[in-house]
Amino acid sequence: MEEIHGEEVERRGADIDAVDAALGEPRVSLHVAALPYPANALEPHLSAETVVTHFEGHHCSNLLRLKAALQAEGRTPESLEDLVRSATGSLFRCAAQVWNHAMCWSSMTPTGGGAPRSLPIRRLVDDSFGSYAGFRDRFQDLAAARVGSGYLWLHRLPGENRITLTAAPNVANPLSQGGIPLLGFDLWEHAYYLDYRNDVDQYVEVFLDELLDWSFAERRLSGGLSQPPAGP
Ligand SMILES: [Fe+2]
Fold first, then answer.
1. Of 53-67, 71-85, 149-163, 194-208, where does mean pLDDT reach its minimum?
2. CB neighbours of residue 54 within 10 Å
3. Residue-wise DSSP of the chain
4. What pLDDT shows up at residue 77?
5. pLDDT of 22
6. From ligand 1's centre to the CA of 105, what distance in Å?
7. Mean pLDDT over all residues of the chain?
8. Cα–Cα distance, 106 to 217 (Å, whole number)
9. How far is the CA of 135 from the centre of ligand 1 (A)?
10. Angle at 98 (CA atoms; ends 94, 103), nearest 5 degrees
């Protein structure tokens, strides 16, 4: 395993600063994979080693596969999100891997965790789950029940001002069903094993209490609500 030192971690973070402004949120592109913060920014909750291994070994490598697949098919989609909605087979799997990972990074922040402080998202959580405690319980239950690789998604249901949580297997995400994903939580073993071994419950707790970025969810929601809900 490559050893990452402070200076190197900072350099990796700085490398992507130049492309950040052009990518929007989540930082998704058909050409560039980017972390929204330096690789050590989530320590002590997620180590730089975990973030670098995850980012380079899964996010970036899938982007390379995706670019090769698009080139082989001579296809130039409008956006990665459109591709995830419309592609099938291995092209879908590559595109979804890249998009899901961009969501995963943007769903965390070094100063995150706890109940949402902003009123619109707090009201939506209360209306949809009864309370923040209801959301937290549901999140933990679904994560504990997820056997095998997958994601936990917080998303707005198509055509409704209500949000829900879904545990999806492998690379599936709510985009394909017309949903608007607000947060993506990576439950693949590679996301936590270096730091938490098989203690998934601890990884889930740390995400909820220390990392979850409600402000990102709110920005996704504002963008999503201004668009007509996509049909299934
Ligand atoms: Fe992952």
1. 71-85
2. 24
3. -----HHHHHHHHHHHHHHHHHHTTTT--SS----SS-TTTTTTTS-HHHHHHHIIIIIIHHHHHHHHHHHHHT---S-HHHHHHH--HHHHHHHHHHHHHHHHHHTB-TT--SS--SHHHHHHHHHHHSSHHHHHHHHHHHHHH--SSEEEEEEEPTTSS-EEEEEEETT--GGGGT-EEEEEEE-SGGGTHHHHTT-HHHHHHHIIIIIB-HHHHHHHHHHHHTSPPPP-
4. 86
5. 57
6. 10
7. 86
8. 9
9. 23
10. 145
Which residues partner with 183 through β-bridges?
154
CA of 230 to the centre of ligand 1 (A): 26
Q: Which residue type does 20 have?
A: D
Residue 190 C-alpha to ligand 1 middle, in angstroms?
A: 6
For the chain, what are the domain ranges? 6-106, 119-225
Confirm or reject CATH 3.55.40.20 for domain 119-225, answering yes or no: yes
Query: Is pLDDT larger for residue 225 or for residue 76?
Result: 76
How far away, in angstroms, is 5 Cα from ligand 1 center?
22
